[in-house]
Automatic annotation (TrEMBL):
The lineage of its organism: Eukaryota, Fungi, Dikarya, Ascomycota, Pezizomycotina. It comes from Xylaria bambusicola. It catalyses: 2 Fe(II)-[cytochrome c] + H2O2 + 2 H(+) = 2 Fe(III)-[cytochrome c] + 2 H2O. Destroys radicals which are normally produced within the cells and which are toxic to biological systems. Keywords: Heme, Iron, Metal-binding, Mitochondrion, Oxidoreductase, Peroxidase, Transit peptide. This is Peroxidase. GO terms for molecular function: cytochrome-c peroxidase activity; heme binding; metal ion binding. Pfam families: peroxidase. PROSITE patterns: PEROXIDASE_1, PEROXIDASE_4.
Amino acid sequence: MQGPTIPYRPGRIDKDASACTPDGRLPDAAQGTDHLRNIFYRMGFNDQEIVALAGAHALGRCHTDRSGFDGPWTFSPTVLTNDYYTLLLNEKWHIRKWDGPKQYQDKTKGLMMLPADYALIQDKAMRPWVEKYAKDNDLFFKDFAAVVNKLFELGVPFNPDTKPIIFKSSNA
Ligand code: HEM
């Protein structure tokens, strides 16, 4: 996806379904930054890391038959870029008029932002990080690689000698 190299260490093990966390512990896209802090601080992430993680929404899209939300965040949803931040700051976002959950829409009507995305630019402490990542793709890549690695490794019972694996991209 043309993003930064993210080291990977195997070690997360399968567990029985009874070990699943109860519902309601994932972030709720309909809520704002108080809620995001409740969810992510618990796992040891700070405001900068919450904003860096949200940049993953450069990829993929929302599906009405899954979350109920609809559409992609960027025009290139298979390529990791800092477009999520530039679009969030530079587009005019309007509440979409539709028979669905509250979400924002750009003027082309081709892109969307969740209430939880839009909340990042309304939050005094988080907005400066959106601005930094919008200006500096290298900084976003560096911080994203670090924080996504932290997320992937949370709670993994590694053997102490587990070395990271670096997957080389085929066109590098
Ligand atoms: C900040 C809190 C977050 C909220 C509220 C949130 C919410 C959502 C929602 C509602 C969807 C749409 C699901 C669907 O309809 O298929 C989605 C998709 C997605 N999210 Fe998040 N998310 C958050 C954080 C993250 C993080 C931390 C990552 C990864 C580092 C991530 C990566 C993605 C990706 C790649 C998709 C697209 C999936 C697809 O195309 O099927 N999100 N997110």
